[in-house]
What does this fold into?
Amino acid sequence: MDATQEIWLNGDFVPWGEARVHVLAHTLHYGAGAFEGVRAYRAEGGTAIFRLDAHLDRLFYSAASIQMPMRFDRAALRAAAIELVRRNRLEEGYLRPIALFGYGVMCVSPERAPVDVAIACWPWGAYLPHEMVDLKISRYPRIPPNATVADAKLTGNYLNGILAVNEIRGTRYHEVLLLDACGNVAEGSGENVFFVKGGALHTPRLGAILPGITRATVMEIARDEGIEVVERDIRPGEALAADEAFFTGTAAEVTPIRSIDDRVIGGGEVGPITRRLRGIYLDAVRGREARYRRFLTAVG
Ligand SMILES: Cc1ncc(COP(=O)(O)O)c(C=O)c1O
It folds into this structure.
């Protein structure tokens, strides 16, 4: 991780190395924290944050889902994110806002715990640094929506993904694919998944997955391009028989999938629809697509 100069913590810009929380912080012990992953890009007119408002919406939704009172309103966090990128002179990279229950009480209920809010940013290249990725279907099902708030970005939800990626350590697989509790395709440990079949895009419907902001962006791009998008239950067998497959995520952007459980998808090459959508997405995030410039927040 490449450190930058400052981190915004509870209203102040503090030196990177001094942005600390107590070891007895509640979230560290029980996993109730809300966070986001956001990217800033070197865009046409200077650095811009992509879909900042959608990420802030999801952060506040996630915090509300665990009854976490946010100490700062949306406008304050929005201004802090922009100012942080500017102060750190980050031209391109990743932002990590997090709201956590801090130090003060030690019992499962976070009711009386104070809330700490931070935003960090740093330069960060490709999350899945491969032209195409090979996946293994995990034996851990995606944590079901009746056991957690599956559509919130909560720290504790990630234990599920950690167990899944631990299984592929030391293997040739790059990422995992989790199924939902009914055996339908859900998502990767940090990505949503799409399949191309007969010229249309198919993706798991909302419910057991994180409603990805990149997923929504790619669906909008596809529809604008006249490509049909179908949100539905997808059985693993259908996934393996797809013509093309790809992941989406803020960190992963659009990453083509080569194989799943050693079965090569389509011809094992980046397919034409994946290539087209990836190209438009990468143009959109850098402000090269007038249609999607509204998603950019200029840092100035
Ligand atoms: C489990 C999971 N699914 C999907 C995504 C993709 O979401 P987004 O496109 O909003 O980054 C992420 C990343 O945040 C994730 O962690």
Q: What stands out?
A: The chain has a mean pLDDT of 97. Residues 11 and 80 are 8 Å apart (CA to CA). The domain at 133-285 is CATH 3.20.10.10 (D-amino Acid Aminotransferase; Chain A, domain 2).
